[in-house]
Amino acid sequence: MALEACFQVSTMAHSTIAGKLSLPACKTPKIAAFSFSASASRLSADFHPRLRAPSKNTRAARVVCEAKNVVAEVLEANTNNWDSLVLKSKLVVLVDFWAPWCGPCRMIEPVIEQIAKDYAGQVICVKVSTDDSPNLANQFGIRSIPTVLISKDGDKKETIVGAVPASTLTNSLTKYLG
After folding, report:
1. Where is the Thioredoxin domain (predicted)?
2. SS3 for 85?
3. Among candidate residues 8, 124, 111, 133, the one with its CA nearest the CA of residue 73
């Protein structure tokens, strides 16, 4: 899911040198070999156990991918960057209010990091230290931590209090996606 959200095919580069085709290593036994047929003028994907060099009538093709504006990690927010990270975001934003001394906050941290990776390109995950940014915590009425806010189009949609399972957070997020 995250891979589809992160990458898009943007252009194709052609070369007559067979060594130009380089694909990442694949853990599965079959690797896709892409070839461009000059005579047929079409792109085809043949699946072979290994890449084969194109014949004289074909040219190797490289698919050039560009990453979209995707964040796959939890960003730190404060009063200085709150507007740009949360209020002006075109994506759903998950905001984690936490403190370094809070045990339950440390328990939920890996869950939020995984959500940031799984929903990259769809959700931005942000954490706010209540010790460093008490004004933001007061503004949103944060009385206990961890507290997770879900925001869309700059509006607070949902509040989740406590160290909850990943399924609780993902179920809440999916309501606001798409």
Report:
1. 42-178
2. helix
3. 124
Same domain, 114 and 138: yes
Phi then psi dihedrals of residue 54, to 5 deg: -70, 155
Active site residues: 102, 105
pTM for the structure as a whole: 0.63
Who has greater pLDDT, 98 or 16?
98
**Please, which residues bridge with residue 76 across strands?**
127
Pick 15 or 172 by higher pLDDT: 172
* CATH number of domain containing 98: 3.40.30.10
**Are 79 and 131 part of one and the same domain?**
yes
Domain identity same for 58 and 89? no
> Is the pLDDT at 130 greater than 70, yes or no?
yes
Task: Dig out the tokens for 66 from the structure.
Answer: 């560009």
28 and 87 belong to one structural domain: no
